[in-house]
UniProtKB/TrEMBL annotation:
InterPro entries: AAA_dom, Bact_polysacc_biosynth/exp, GNVR, P-loop_NTPase, Wzc-like_C. Residues 578-726 form the AAA domain. Residues 436-513 form the Tyrosine-protein kinase G-rich domain. This is non-specific protein-tyrosine kinase. It comes from Autumnicola patrickiae. Gene3D superfamilies: P-loop containing nucleotide triphosphate hydrolases (3.40.50.300). Keywords: ATP-binding, Coiled coil, Kinase, Membrane, Nucleotide-binding, Transferase, Transmembrane, Transmembrane helix, Tyrosine-protein kinase. It comes from the Bacteria. Its EC number is 2.7.10.2. The keyword Transmembrane helix applies.
Length: 764
């Protein structure tokens, strides 16, 4: 359990360290929240347009989803073609841009009205408008123009065109002619005294573009999978306008459906009337023939055998006539399609032709013709939509003609068989006296034509009845109405998103900064990249004095040197630690500053300390102290007559602190560092002093420090926050792993401390 407990503690520590690192930048997170929440507030307050949802429910009688037929619909079972209706088709019609365009035109929504708000323009509609515009739709009109109307009194107003400095006064009801169109401004109220001086901006828009927009906003879907209820919903920033649009759209949809049924009924009646005219003349001629024949032959009855034969023959002839009628109807439809060509109107009913495929093709052909007519009201014939419908009509015309030929071929074969049977019966009838036979033949012809006449007359009456009493297949269940509150924009989601982005962006900035930054920023960076023990941290100092670790100084930097002094004693407890090598990876990391102040801190604690400037190539120790000496380390190594006392310089300000300069600059510092005199020098100093501090050259530049490895007891690497490169810690780790220098330790220099990070610091 103990290892798990330790692991848990370590994880908690890691989390706390991560949180602590990000909390250092709390002001960035606060600024991010303020900016994004403020932006969200401004967007919701001045930019976002609230959208209200308008909903309605319709019942559409679907032939595929239930039998709710009225008594008029039952007539369709007798043979008339009725338009096919199913939920998917009706949804497609309701959401079409053409139907929406008709609805918007009837509502006169070619003009949008605005009034000046506190920040932005506010669109107004309906009862909120004291005046409105009527466009003369019979004349050409171009969209995109903006005007301003300033109400002067109950009769007059001032009109200003956008981009033009041409104000002109008109009276309400006066027709205004402009290059872009003709329109009239009307007053909604008799008394406009409360509106005098107010200005309303208006914009003429493209009704086609407006229809496309609302068609995209409109949602129509079945309430359930088994019923015929559909839900209609629309988003609009003005609830009243949205309700008017949905109401008008349903009205136009219902009216168009009835008009389509009426057109089909009229077309069918016209075809039946044409056929009845021919039958009437034929029936009249047959009746005259019967009368004349009876008068000539004095006939009143036929014998029973002849009656039986004639009855069968009559039945066969009746069937032949029926098939011939069907063939005639098919020929009529075929001729109708061929004569009409590409601009054919609605195809009439196929009467008693009961082929489902033909019925479906004709219904689809008629639907496309109506859709084409609707488009041609507002679009030219070369419009891609019209061209596409023409292509579909052409394909349907070919399919109908092919289907007609197939059905007609089948009817001709059946008729041929019936004719053969009829001829056989005729041969049997020849035995009957010719006069009676001829009379019965005439009567049979009369009966056949009379039955066909009565059949067509019945169908005409049925179609006329449906035309005189049209019944809509649509019923409004829930009238269009809007919600009390807008459905968008969602304030909760926007504010939540603002909070998320307000935190995420600062987090990303801090994360990227932390990962891109290649400088050492904290002890954590050192511990994460190396296994070298950290001796301590040195605070950033604004003091211009080189010596800060004095006895009376209570600044953070002085206190931290005291802490390092304690840590040094703690680490070296039980071990000899007199000669300490102080180095760094590169120039400028503060090793000389550290050497001087560590020596000062040790000296004021009663220890006798000497600091050597062993950076023979670029010495700084004595210069920083403001001291000088003609002889130093190099002189002692080269000249055996040089005495130790000659090169030692006492500190003028710190008791028990001494210095040795680097001496003359040698031409061969690398070879000089291998001299045996160095060992002798350090041994003598070791005997005389409690601590020997060696300010060495940077290990990342030259190998001078490694030459001192046999003589030292421990090593202190100085790295500087926000200056030393993280990648250079590899050098220190290599020294630690391969034991190139004894007991290496790291000190982080120039650390920024906040007041919360200090305790009792301050000058006393």
């Amino acid at each position: 359990m103990k290892p798990n407990h330790i692991s848990q503690k370590a994880e908690e520590k890691d989390i706390k360290e991560i949180l602590s690192k990000y909390l250092e930048y709390w002001y960035i997170f606060l600024l991010g929240l303020i900016i994004f929440i403020g932006a969200a507030f401004l967007y919701l307050r001045y930019e976002a347009i609230p959208q209200y949802q308008i909903t309605s429910t319709l019942l559409i009688k679907d032939k595929d989803k239930g039998e709710g037929a009225s008594k008029f619909e039952s007539f369709a079972e007798l043979g008339l073609i009725k338009p096919s209706r199913n939920i998917e088709d009706e949804i497609g019609i309701l959401t079409s841009a053409g139907l929406m365009e008709v609805a918007l035109s009837e509502l006169s929504l070619q003009v949008r009205y605005y009034v000046e708000g506190k920040v932005n323009e506010v669109e107004v509609y309906g009862k909120d408008l004291p005046v409105y515009v009527e466009i003369n739709n019979s004349l050409p009109f171009s969209h995109g123009q903006r005007l301003s109307i300033t109400m002067l009194d109950n009769k007059r107003f001032e009109l200003t065109e956008e981009g033009k400095d041409n104000k002109k006064t008109y009276t309400y009801g006066q027709e205004i002619l402009k290059p872009y169109g003709t329109f009239t401004v009307l007053s909604r109220f008799d008394d406009l005294s409360s509106e005098i001086g107010n200005t309303i901006d208006m914009e003429f828009i493209s009704i086609q573009d407006f229809a496309e927009y609302y068609s995209e906003q409109l949602e129509v879907e079945p309430v359930n999978e088994t019923g015929s209820l559909i839900a209609v919903s629309l988003l609009d920033p003005i609830p009243e306008r949205g309700e008017d649009i949905v109401t008008k759209l349903i009205e136009v949809y219902t009216r168009k459906a009835v008009e389509y049924k009426n057109r089909l009924a009229i077309s069918t009646i016209e075809m039946i009337d044409d056929r009845l005219q021919h039958l009437t003349s034929e029936l009249t001629g047959v009746e005259k023939n019967v009368e004349q024949y009876k008068q000539q032959n004095d006939l009143t009855d036929v014998n029973s055998n002849a009656a039986i034969y004639l009855q069968k023959a009559s039945q066969a002839k009746s069937e032949l006539a029926d098939y011939q009628t069907q063939i005639d109807v098919l020929n009529s439809i075929e001729n109708y399609l061929k004569q009409q060509g590409p601009n054919a109107s609605l195809v009439p009913s196929s009467l008693n032709i009961q082929d489902a495929t033909l019925v479906g093709l004709i219904s689809r052909f008629n639907e496309l013709q109506l859709e084409k007519r609707s488009l041609l009201r507002t679009t030219p014939e070369d419009n891609p939509l019209v061209v596409e419908i023409d292509e579909q009509l052409s394909d349907l015309r070919n399919n109908i003609l092919e289907n007609l030929n197939n059905i007609k071929d089948g009817l001709i074969i059946t008729r041929r068989n019936l004719m053969a049977n009829s001829n056989r019966l005729e041969s049997q009838i020849r035995n009957v006296p010719s006069a009676e036979r001829e009379l019965l033949a005439i009567n049979r012809q009369q009966s056949t034509k009379q039955e066909l006449y009565l059949y067509l007359l019945q169908k005409r009456e049925e179609e006329a009845l449906s035309l005189s009493a049209p019944v809509s297949n649509t019923r409004v269940i829930d009238e269009p109405r809007s919600g009390n509150f807008p459905v968008s924009p969602n304030k909760t989601s926007i504010y939540l998103g603002a909070i998320i982005f307000g935190l995420f962006l600062p987090f990303s900035i801090v994360y990227i900064k932390d990962n891109i930054d290649d400088k050492i920023q904290s002890v954590d960076d050192i511990q994460r990249l190396t296994n070298v023990p950290v001796l301590g941290k040195i605070a950033h100092s604004n003091d211009k004095e080189i010596i800060v670790a004095t006895e009376k100084n209570r600044t953070p930097v002085a206190e931290l040197f005291r802490l390092i002094r304690f840590n040094l004693k703690f680490i070296s407890a039980g071990k000899t630690n007199k000669i300490i090598l102080i180095t760094s990876d590169m120039k400028g990391e503060g090793k000389t500053f550290f050497t001087i102040n560590l020596g000062t801190s040790l000296a004021i604690s009663g220890k006798k300390v000497i600091a050597l400037s062993f950076d023979l190539r670029a010495p700084k120790l004595m210069q920083d102290m403001g001291l000088s000496n003609k002889v130093g380390v190099t002189d002692y190594i080269i000249n055996h007559d040089t005495k130790l006392e000659e090169i030692i310089v006492p500190s003028p300000s710190v008791e028990n602190l001494f210095f040795i300069d680097s001496g003359s600059t040698p031409p061969n510092a690398g070879e000089l560092m291998l001299s045996e005199r160095i060992g002798k020098l350090l041994n003598e100093l070791k005997e005389r002093y409690d601590y020997v501090l060696i300010d060495s050259a940077p290990v990342g530049k030259v190998a001078d420090a490694f030459a001192l490895a046999p003589h030292i007891d421990s090593t202190i690497f100085v790295v500087r926050r926000n200056y030393s490169n993280k990648a250079r810690l590899v050098t220190i780790q290599d020294i630690y792993e391969n034991k190139k220098l004894k007991y290496p330790m790291v000190v982080l220099n120039d650390v920024e401390f906040s007041k919360a990070d200090t305790y009792g610091y301050g000058n006393e």
